[in-house]
Amino acid sequence: MTLRFCFSPTTLLAALAGIAVLASGCSRAAPPKAPPPAAVTVTPVVRQDVPVNVEAVATVDGYANVDIRARVRGFLERQHYDDGATVKEGQLLFTVERSEYEAALASARAALSRALAAQAHGRTQLERRTALAKVDGLSQQELEDAQAQARDADGQVEAARAQVRQAELNLSYTAIRAPIGGVAGLAQVRAGNLVGQDGPTLLTTVSQVDPVRVTFPLSEVDYVRAPDRLKKLAGRDLAWARRQFPRLDQGQPGDGGDPGVELLLSDGKPYAHRGVIVAANRQVDPTSGTIQLQALFPNPDHALRPGQYGRVRLRQEGAGGNVLVVPEKSLVQLQGTYSLAVVGPDAKVQLRQVKVGPNVGALRIVEAGVSEGERVVVDGLQAARDGATVAPKDLTATAANLPAPAAPATGRP
């Protein structure tokens, strides 16, 4: 028996199209192309001399701070200066009501007059009785009584004179003057208030602010590294510091080649003048392992005020010569360890743990882990996985991204 299939032209074309679709579905898809290597920027590890500094948090204080107190009881009569104004030594700051102390002085002077009169009378009586005693006209007992009365009168005069001096002193305390020149703070008590009731009342504080004292801690290790600089502090007084300031402002070292101390303000900007270390505390703090140092800074414009915070920066002795440096941003920090993405000649990345030293501006000293000339990734660290192949692009080391080699020191830092 013969079977016949009849297809219209349209049905036949649809069937052929279905077969083509099935055939294409059974074929294997072409594999995707591998992504190109990630582009990274690299720079070589270089060896050079860099200035290494020690930084520490510092506090600013006046060279001298004097609390102005009312030493006698009374009503505050008047304030004679403007709050926060610059005052001169001996300038009148406050006055306390004087009438009570003027009356006390008048009374003390009157008592002195009476004592002087009694003294004169006693001396006359003694002279008379001494003459009578010589001709046996007076007993020895009466002569001794006259001598005792004369000595008592002398003592009364001395006591009265002391009372006068005390009354004069108390009266002088009603005029309160600045013991030093400087900047006077805000008044703590206003006119009309009773002062000196339960002891000397604090009225204000005057601070000598040119120069200022800057106190900061230095680690024991850094202290040991700088024996010559920090153990020759004898004789570094205010007069010595004032002789150093003009030389430091001109960029010259001070006595013994001392380059001075730099102060960074709270906004990160350096203060316009350098200072000098003048004193060190007697001991190292065993809890922090630091020793407190004091430096003096010129402050002609009164830009620095007591209570300010900043950071001092001073050169670290014997550090920064012929060291390996890399850009700070090339370091990967994780849980206190540092690594660098080193790109080899085959363009493959090797994450290598390194030992780092202090930072110098935008650079960081590397003490171990890499060699001079090796290339490290500075941009594109997110793509620099260990073992990955990258497309490195060299970053030319110019003066724009690397500091110039340190100039030879003119003295010990």
UniProtKB/TrEMBL annotation:
The keyword Coiled coil applies. It is found in: Cell envelope. Residues 245-315 form the Multidrug resistance protein MdtA-like beta-barrel domain. Residues 65-201 form the Multidrug resistance protein MdtA-like barrel-sandwich hybrid domain. Residues 1-29 form the signal peptide. Residues 322-382 form the Multidrug resistance protein MdtA-like C-terminal permuted SH3 domain. PROSITE patterns: IQ, PROKAR_LIPOPROTEIN. InterPro entries: MdtA-like_b-barrel, MdtA-like_BSH, MdtA-like_C, MdtA-like_HH, RND_pump_MFP. Residues 143-170 form a coiled coil. Gene3D superfamilies: 2.40.30.170, 2.40.420.20, 2.40.50.100, Helix hairpin bin. Keywords: Coiled coil, Lipoprotein, Signal. The keyword ATP-binding does not apply. Residues 105-174 form the Multidrug resistance protein MdtA-like alpha-helical hairpin domain. PANTHER family: ACRA/E-RELATED COMPONENT OF DRUG EFFLUX TRANSPORTER (PTHR30158). Belongs to the membrane fusion protein (MFP) (TC 8.A.1) family. This is Periplasmic multidrug efflux lipoprotein. It comes from Anaeromyxobacter paludicola. The lineage of its organism: Bacteria, Pseudomonadati, Myxococcota, Myxococcia, Myxococcales. The gene is amrA.
